[in-house]
Amino acid sequence: MLPVVLGQDGAVIGTDANYFPLLPSDKRYSKKLKKDVFDFVGFVIYKEKMLAVFPKHYFDENKNLDEQQTKESVNLLFKVIRKYVAENKSNPMADKYIGYEENFESDYPFADFFKVYEYYKRYGIYKEEEVLVEKNSRGKISWKDTIQKSNVIVSKDNLIFLPLYSKKKNTKDAFISQCMVYVINHTLKNFPYFIELPPVRGKECKIDFLANKDYTLRQLYQYRNTIFKDYQKELLEALISFFEKYNKNPNGGAIHIKINYFDMIWEKMVNKYLNDCFVKVDKENRKLEFKYERIKRANHFNSKKFNIDRSEHKFSIKPDHYCEEEDNMYVFDSKYYDEISDLNYKQFSYTILLGNSQLGNNKNLYSALLLPGKNRGKLHLKLDIPYCQLNQGCNYIIEQFLDVKLLMKNYLNMNIEKELKEQKN
Which segments of 262-348 are extended strands (E)? Predict the structure, then answer.
């Protein structure tokens, strides 16, 4: 397994992480900490070592994970990013970084690997077959060749063809099959934390195809004129594309698999968690309550646009997570922040405008900011008496911290009942 260095978005870049060639966009200077901090989520692989940077507050103070815990966490993050991009194929920002299958883009040609592996699952390792026609063999008789090539003998009013010609299929390993094995096993060996698929066993490659990439591509180009079946052509093009896109030289180089806009994924994860598990707001303790139910809600949390302006500007507001249920109105907003120290004016305006609108009449309004962190709730705002609104809900905004790992699991439809019960206790 690759040695793994763990990091966290927004955390100080330690000396062990300085080993990796980070891009300027991968970090930012923190005035508060007076040091460079990570500014991305994802992975950097460099010279048989991997840096894994997790979302904000994924870890508590302890980052001493054993090998199995590390593998599970890395695999969890990889699947979350992959799922988000697969669901947002039209998002140009998503396509810029990483995608699954046809939409998978990164410094490593995973899209082509998955195509090669799909061929392997369906047809096995590529075999080049040639049909040999031989006389007096034990194979299946080829009457066409026999009639064309044999002598005709008349015996007792019967036509006898001698000799008989038979067809025999001769299967031989081809350059393509070796190349295919290399692509599959090389990828699975180098990304064991990401891809849980069985390698091709019992097949050894005689050539280091990547170390001899130019030779490999020349050979593959020549096969374009000798392969005619569509599914085999697709395999060949996937192999060619893999080696054309592979940027890593034999001595190393960095492979980046990362995303610089995890706030978008955070919003998606929060919305799914609300629809799957949200129960109510605890008025007394000012926090949100969740339960593992996975029931269909009468009304769903969704981003909703409200047109509030009659001027030529046509200004509107759009809470991330809005829902009306019976007598309740929920106005929630995702915030992928380390912490909040100033009044969130956007959420305050949402709260005042919607709470004092016709929609807010005779409804209990609940306003909350949803942040990554250890599960807890606290007040973000409690209006002083001279400034209070008639709608009581407008006077409070809750800061609700949600367990990042739990939301990631729920986003992937993994069972989180145990974690939710532990939180309650």
Answer: 278-282, 287-290, 306-307, 316-317, 321-325, 328-334
Does pTM top 0.90 for this prediction? no
User: Could you tell me which of 181, 46, 44 has the C-alpha nearest to residue 125?
Assistant: 181
Q: What is the mean pLDDT of the chain?
A: 83
Neighbours of 234 (CB within 10 A): 15
CB 130 within 8 A of CB 170: yes
- Do residues 99 and 113 touch, judged by C-beta distance below 8 A? no
Length, in residues, of the chain: 425
CA distance 386 to 151: 114
Which residues are CB-neighbours of 158 under 8 A, at least 6 positions away?
none
- pLDDT, tens digit (0-9, with 9 covering 90-100), for 31-49: 999 999 999 999 988 887 8
Instruction: Give per-residue pLDDT as tens, 144-166.
Output: 766 666 666 666 666 666 677 67
Q: Decide: 367 and 342 in contact? Cβ < 8 Å.
A: no
